[in-house]
Specification:
By secondary structure, the protein is mainly α. It has 25 helices and no strands. It is globular.
Length: 460
């Protein structure tokens, strides 16, 4: 009996140890046993640009870790590629890791931001770095490039309007221009240490209404992240300081410009905001929108659901109740923001997203569906990814609004009218007319569309 017990105890010790040895030999990090360096096989896959093999090795290496340890493990792999100037390989690897690990898909925007923040180096051409990014995970790489550039160069009344114009592709492709000016908004909040009115004043330096509104959206998104301690600002600053120190040690004379907010006389007709601005007002579900001027309301309420979930959690019925308290004009916009968060919270699952959107007031549900489908498409930049979702919606007004939103996304992603028409011709039933209206191919309002005046705002 004692001998059998000893054999059992030995097995309980030896078998796990053997498994740990096997896993470690295959490159898996065992919590508590140290972190081995990346293997020669990883270097070979990197040299070959084999993102499939790199992703598999990254997943094998990091799969037993949790929380920050796991994200740090994946970041090490991705940033090793970026430091070797293999930006596209890093993005491809991230996409394939996301297919293996649902947690990476959920946090994909953060990982792509970090790739972008490390993709540009002081002294390098901004356009070259920017145009190596892709639309993966809501185009976070593009935003990261702009963030780190602003951190290094600062912002002035002269530089802000010209920054995106300095990137050739953003002058011709509306989708890429949006990512640039949206990234500017992120960067403005970082530069101004989460002082939202000062950041928005920086966006006001942009000459067109469309650019300004897109910049405001990025600023509100970064303001939300800053309030949660999730901003990439410190990471961007650290990257710039690290690269500047390396440049100095190597005898370079480039240096790094100090970031600064626009001086008072640079604003002309803009009133300078106060020196303090609370990052949150506990219990106030409509802050900061209710503390800002009229011109910022649409962009603010489009993001306000992100602050509401901090108070009520991912209870979208309660978030909808919060949106119902907004000024009547902005309730639809607030519901669209709910849809954006529903998409992320359900990891783009159509059935779950429909269940969550149905928790709001019926007359505003169409805008929740708009937020969902636009986010579906933002993740991949493929409009077809939204069609299945729209087709599942039973409520006619919501289904038609969903197809209009798909058309709007097509109008951003496709410059030429014939390409928009070719896509919308693939849409079935009542969705085709709605897609064509959203894509700007016709002025005929599709049957069942509520508030058509809310769609197809002019780009000027």
């Amino acid at each position: 009996m004692i001998r059998k017990l000893l054999w059992v105890l030995a097995a309980l010790v030896v078998v796990p140890a053997a498994i740990a040895v096997f896993l470690r030999a295959n490159g898996t990090i065992i919590p508590g046993l140290g972190t081995p360096g990346l293997s020669p096989a990883f270097a070979q896959a990197a040299a070959a640009g084999d993102s499939l093999e790199l992703a598999q090795k990254a997943y094998t290496r990091c799969r037993l870790l949790r929380g920050k340890a796991k994200s740090g493990c994946y970041e090490e792999v991705l940033l090793t590629l970026v430091k070797e100037r293999k930006i596209r390989v890093a993005i491809g690897t991230l996409a394939r890791i996301g297919a293996l690990d649902g947690e990476v898909r959920r946090l994909g925007h953060d990982y792509s931001h970090i790739i972008g923040i490390n993709a540009w180096r002081p002294g390098e051409d901004l356009a070259s770095a920017y145009e190596q990014c892709t639309e993966l995970y809501q185009s976070g790489c593009y935003h990261g490039v702009i963030q780190v550039y602003l951190t290094a160069k600062g912002a002035t009344a002269e530089s802000v309007p010209e920054l995106c114009n300095s990137i050739p592709s953003t002058r011709d492709i509306l989708f890429l221009r949006f990512q640039c000016v949206h990234g500017l908004g992120h960067g403005m909040v970082m530069l101004n240490k989460a002082h939202l009115p000062k950041a928005l004043a920086g966006c006001d330096l942009l000459p067109s209404a469309w650019d300004r509104d897109s910049c405001y959206g990025g600023a509100f998104m970064e303001f939300i992240l800053a309030g949660r301690g999730q901003s990439h600002g410190e990471h961007a600053a650290h990257v710039v300081e690290e690269l500047a120190a390396a440049d100095s040690a190597a005898g370079g004379g480039g240096g790094t410009a100090h970031a600064h907010e626009p001086a008072a006389d640079e604003h002309a007709d803009h009133e300078m905001p106060s020196d303090t601005f609370a990052i949150r007002r506990p219990g106030d579900l409509l802050y900061p929108c209710n503390a800002l001027g009229d011109k910022y309301q649409r962009a603010c309420y489009a993001m306000q659901a992100g602050i509401m979930v901090e108070s009520v959690g991912l209870d979208f019925a309660r978030v909808a109740e919060g949106c119902n308290q907004a000024p009547e004009l902005w309730i639809p916009t607030c519901y669209q923001g709910i849809g954006t968060y529903v998409s992320g919270a359900t990891v783009q699952d159509p059935a779950d997203a429909i269940t969550e959107c149905n928790k709001g007031r019926l007359e505003y549900q169409p805008w929740c569906y708009i937020g969902v489908v636009k986010n579906f498409i933002d993740v991949t930049a493929r409009p077809a990814d939204g069609l299945e979702f729209c087709g599942r919606i039973g409520h006619e007004a919501s289904r038609v609004a969903c197809y209009v939103a798909v058309g709007e996304q097509v109008s951003v992603l496709q410059t030429w009218m014939e390409d928009r028409a070719k896509f919308c011709d693939t849409v079935v039933a009542d969705g085709q007319a709605a897609c064509r209206f959203g894509a700007g191919l016709t002025d005929d309002v599709p049957r069942g569309l509520l508030r058509p005046d809310w769609f197809r705002r002019p780009v000027n």
